Automatic annotation (TrEMBL):
The keyword Calcium does not apply. This is Killer protein of pyocin s3. It holds the Pfam family Pyocin_S. InterPro entries: Pyosin/cloacin_T_dom, Pyosin/cloacin_T_dom_sf. GO terms for biological process: defense response to bacterium; killing of cells of another organism. Residues 2-46 form the Pyosin/cloacin translocation domain. It comes from Photorhabdus khanii subsp. guanajuatensis. The lineage of its organism: Bacteria, Pseudomonadati, Pseudomonadota, Gammaproteobacteria, Enterobacterales.
Length: 183
């Protein structure tokens, strides 16, 4: 049988390289099955992006895919409900719910410790009223500040500095502007 060689040999960059046994997780979306040669058992290669960090800002789908059993919630800022209303007003019937959901999956989000998100967020679960969603959809920039400011006291209690909080706020505004939610 022919030999399989991978060149160049990858240098360790931004993640951990581990060997068997495979992790206990049951989500195999991050695995590649390799069948090296006939009559040899398959090899599973696990591809892992670096874990999400507290206050990391990015697109929802990226952060959510990297947050696993880490105590973090991936929080849309502004809320997913406000963004959905904004899109429906902007696009009207031109966009289907499926189109809107795809856009929202790329919405700007931040990794927040679950206990802080649950305890302080003004838009967590039932606190995100229809009136709040409408208000936030009308002024995305103000909604970002309002949504983030609500969680700042909890984040400060956890030991996050004003420098870290200001950096996260700036990143939330910058990425929302880059995505065209407001100017």
């Amino acid at each position: 049988p022919s030999q399989i060689t991978v060149l160049p040999i990858p240098e360790k960059v931004g993640s951990d390289i581990e060997s068997l046994p495979m992790p206990e997780e049951k989500d195999f979306r991050d695995y590649i099955l390799i069948l090296p040669i006939p009559n040899m058992p398959p090899v599973y290669v696990y591809l892992s992006k670096p874990p999400v960090k507290p206050l990391e800002v990015g697109e929802y789908h990226d952060l959510a895919g990297r947050s696993r059993n880490d105590g973090m919630d991936i929080d849309h800022i502004p809320s997913k409900g406000a963004l959905k209303l904004f899109l429906k007003a902007k696009l009207g019937k031109a966009a289907t719910d499926k189109d809107i959901d795809k856009i929202l999956n790329s919405g700007v989000s931040i990794a927040i410790p679950h206990r802080i998100h649950r305890g302080y967020s003004e838009t967590y679960k039932g606190r995100n009223t229809k009136a709040k969603q409408v208000k936030d959809a009308l002024d995305i920039g103000a909604a970002i500040d309002s949504n983030f400011d609500a969680q700042v006291p909890g984040l400060r209690k956890e030991g996050y500095t004003d420098e870290q909080l200001n950096k996260a706020r700036e990143e939330l505004h910058q990425l929302n502007k880059e995505q065209g939610w407001y100017k």
